[in-house]
Amino acid sequence: MTDVASDLESLLEARVRGQVLLPPDPGYDAARMPFNAMAAGRPIAIVRPVDTRDVAATIRAAAEADLGIGVRCGGHSVAGHSTPEGGLLIDLSGWRGADVDPVGQTVDALGGSRLMDLDAATAAFGFAVPTGTFVDTGITGLTLSGGISYLVSSEGFACDALVGAEVVTASGEVVDVDEAHEPALLWALRGGGGNFGVVTRLRYRLTPLPTIYGGHLRYRGDGLVDLLERVFALDREAPDELSLQALTWRTEADGVGATVMVAWRGDAESGDRLLAGLLDHPALYERDLRPMSWLQIQAQNTPLPFGFRNYWKGHFVRETPAALAEALVDAASRVTGSDFALAELMHGKAHRIAAETAAFGGRHAVANVTAVAIWSDPAEDADHVAWARSTAASVEPWSLRGGGYLNYSEVDQSAARIAAAFDPATFARLRDVKRRFDPDNRFRFNANIAPAG
Ligand SMILES: Cc1cc2nc3c(=O)[nH]c(=O)nc-3n(C[C@H](O)[C@H](O)[C@H](O)COP(=O)(O)OP(=O)(O)OC[C@H]3O[C@@H](n4cnc5c(N)ncnc54)[C@H](O)[C@@H]3O)c2cc1C
Predict the structure, then answer these.
(1) pLDDT, tens digit, for every residue of 47-83?
(2) How far is the CA of 223 from the centre of ligand 1 (A)?
(3) Which residue's alpha carbon is nearest to atom 4 within ligand 1?
(4) How high is the pLDDT of residue 122?
(5) What is the pLDDT of residues 142-193, one digit of tens each?
(6) Cα separation, 115 vs 113, whole angstroms
(7) Whether residue 334 sits in one domain with residue 235
């Protein structure tokens, strides 16, 4: 152990009551394990605080040692932000659980909770929160940068449901945030990412538990461009209660194909009527749509294991023309392995919520289009990265502002792409909020917003 690490260990052990892990402690490697093996950073130390006071003590110790801080909730950062190379990692992944207030129709969740913790707690009272579609994802990372779920068009983004939080800022101060207290910080937490402190508790507004008619439709062969055009057209005209996602892919067995993920907040009969143009498409070869509980639709996607290599890159798009459908089918024709292109379509309430209520920059996009490359052999890095980059470039003509979804960031995302995720006035305001709550940019392992000035 170096002198610096040994001094840090003594400092943390004197100040912090939770577990402190430094290399080569047993458990250090497991604790830093990233979702994305392309971003396996080595934090100088990992701290698992026992309570909010301990979080504050850890932040103060990091400031004293002049270290940057990374924060981990569910550890799913595709860009590898929660495995900070050379920084101090505050690991809240054990802080799981949620308390429902059925009368006030809110839920308070600990800052390390996963979607499944929130879903299970709220469903028991007949409620849900619009978050995301993989149950093991962390709620905090997801919410702070947006949050796209099967309820996006009927409820908005996860950050829109965030009505309060407890935040430990860079000075170690514990701040209770809601519409009445520190509204500027609440606004920044709704889309500005993990830039403003450690969020130890999140309060969400609840929505009545939806019943869903949903599942997937699979297509292959000729006519995929036409199919995607039908999907895009349907989403443009659909009621808020319909959510659609389209994936294009290629396999040895089926060649180029497309999957449409469907979630209709209604019954089977009205759902089939609405989806008629997709159900009678000649390229359809597999149909699996059924009435589902909210917990069933949330559990549809099998969690992806940690440790694969990932490079995701995309754009929020302002329109979905036929040429975009062609680009997505073309991307699939160039796929090797299990890479795929994903279009998450958004309309309805996602667009109607007043833009000034949240810093989130993708509100007026009609889709989040992302090239998702996932593989295991480092020898294939160049091919998969090239595929994702070229696919993202092919979508760029319809980009809202040249930026993508900050929750799906590529590992080498540029500062310009981060800025382009927001409109310029919002980005400037975020920099002001950052200056107030983290003037030294202590929280810099994230889609970083530099303090103003
Ligand atoms: C398999 C998979 C499926 C996904 N599905 C969806 C989806 O359906 N919808 C969607 O919108 N997104 C989805 N995502 C993207 C997801 O939203 C991001 O990966 C997000 O960062 C995950 O949050 P996390 O807490 O697990 O991440 P972490 O890696 O733990 O954290 C990521 C970043 O969030 C910030 N952060 C986390 N916790 C805190 C905290 N307590 N206080 C302050 N800052 C914090 C930090 O900046 C941190 O670097 C998916 C990602 C993966 C890998």
Answers:
(1) 999 999 999 999 999 999 999 999 999 999 999 999 9
(2) 35
(3) 134
(4) 98
(5) 999 999 999 999 999 999 999 999 999 999 999 999 999 999 999 999 999 9
(6) 7
(7) yes
The verdict on residue 419 lying in a domain is: no
Give the gyration radius of the chain's Cα atoms.
22
Q: Is the pLDDT of residue 84 over 70?
A: yes
Which residue is closest in CA terms to ligand 1's atom 15? 407
Q: Is there a single domain that holds both residue 262 and residue 181?
A: no
pLDDT given for residue 4 in this prediction: 77
Last residue of a domain, one of 91, 121, 142: 91
Q: Is the residue at 266 inside a domain?
A: yes
Host H or E run for residue 245 = strand 242-251
Asked whether 74 lines ligand 1 (CB < 6 A), one says yes
Q: Which is the closest atom of ligand 1 to the Cα of 167?
A: 42
Does residue 348 belong to any structural domain of this protein?
A: yes
- For residue 77, the ligand 1 atom closest to its alpha carbon is 29
| CA angle (423 as vertex; 421, 426 as ends), nearest 5 | 105
Strand spans (E) along 301-394: 309-317, 340-345, 367-375
Cα of 417 vs centre of ligand 1, distance in Å, is 18
In this prediction, residues 235-258 reach a mean pLDDT of 97
Q: Which of 149, 179, 209 is at the close of a domain? A: 209
What domain count does the chain have?
3
154 within a domain of the structure (yes/no): yes
With a 6 Å cutoff on the Cβ, whether 35 touches ligand 1 is: yes
For ligand 1, whether the C-beta of 148 sits within 6 Å is: yes
Does residue 246 sit in helix, strand or coil?
strand
Are 108 and 186 members of one domain?
Answer: yes
Nearest residue by C-alpha to atom 44 in ligand 1: 194
**Do 325 and 216 share a structural domain?**
yes
Domain holding 48, by residue range, is 3-91
Question: What is the pTM for the complete model shown?
Answer: 0.98
- The single residue listed with the structure tokens 């294991």 is 305
